[in-house]
Design a protein that fits this description.
The protein is 0% helix and 38% strand. By secondary structure, it is mainly β. The strands form 6 sheets. It has a two-stranded antiparallel ribbon. The protein is rod-shaped.
């Protein structure tokens, strides 16, 4: 494995490139015939045994130096019975994958299609509309406004409207 160290200076329209192989010598292969520098360094991050370090992988935690190389523990993402989740290498955030048919994943809970919200009976799991949140039930859907003095309550624009007094 070769590691190259170098610098680039651009002044007055002149490109000066200096590359070394780490042993004091230069390597002309890193500059192609057009003068373009194409250097890829595949050197792992080195460190001192037991020290905290950064392995540059956003999907690892508690990075520590082990035998001169920085390594981290794989980040664990939440597990769901209705969906998978995995760490995104772009930003280290856990992302939920596809949710099973006929279910919604709402506030980290798997909810069956048709189930209404505990706080608003005019909202329900409708995976065909939104599999990650409650959706507004159709107007005139039956609901419960929580008042004992009304019956035949119905939904209107996501709100449970009181029906008529009991007979």
């Amino acid at each position: 494995m070769k590691a190259f160290f170098g610098w680039v200076l651009v002044a007055s329209g002149v490109l000066v490139v200096s590359c070394s192989s780490g042993d004091g010598g230069t390597d002309p292969e890193v500059v192609d015939s057009t003068g373009t520098v194409d250097v890829q360094v595949d050197t792992p991050v080195t460190c001192h045994e037991g020290d905290d370090c950064d392995d540059l992988d956003p999907c690892t935690l508690h990075d520590r130096c082990l035998e001169g190389v920085c390594v981290g523990e794989a980040m664990e993402c939440p597990t769901y019975t209705c969906a998978t989740s995995a760490c995104s290498p772009e930003d280290g955030a856990c992302r939920v994958g596809e949710i099973q048919a006929g279910l919604c994943l709402i506030e980290d809970l798997c909810v069956e299609a048709g189930a209404t919200s505990a706080s608003n009976s005019c909202l329900s799991c409708q995976p065909e509309l939104d599999s990650r949140g409650y959706s507004v039930r159709p107007d005139t859907s039956p609901c419960e406004d929580g008042k004992v003095c009304t019956e035949n309550d119905t939904c209107s624009n996501g709100v449970c409207e009181s029906g008529s007094p009991p007979k």
